[in-house]
Amino acid sequence: MLDSIENERVRKILGANLRNLRQSRGYSQLKFAEAVGATQAAISAWELGTREPELGTVFQIARSFKVPVSSLLPIETSDMDEDVTLKVIDAVRQNPNISAAIQKMKYFDERQLNVVMSVIDAISTEAVSNE
After folding, report:
1. How many angstroms separate the CA atoms of 77 and 58, rounded?
2. CATH number for the domain including 37?
3. pTM
4. Which of 26, 36, 111, 128 has the largest CB neighbor count within 10 A?
5. 51 in a domain, yes or no?
């Protein structure tokens, strides 16, 4: 899990990027909230960096406003296939067990996340070898 300083930095950058996107389109916070299915209070909190939207919401915003996710998140996404990522997010939403597990992983530390990634790598390697 990100340490609190890094998490705060990410929230602030994401918030500034969302504000810039909203303002560049001439949207008020209320109009933006309606466009993305959130409340005005949520938009305000996101922009201030006191809360962050769910990752799926960030992808939905990017898709709705036709901007790359990398323009919103302070991460390197050059290797990320956004279409595949959106399909994974949709699949997770449709499976409550996976969704619940992912919600719990939000609070994992770096060591725990590395274990999860190792398991995912092992599963994907097994799936490829079974094809």
Report:
1. 14
2. 1.10.260.40
3. 0.58
4. 36
5. yes
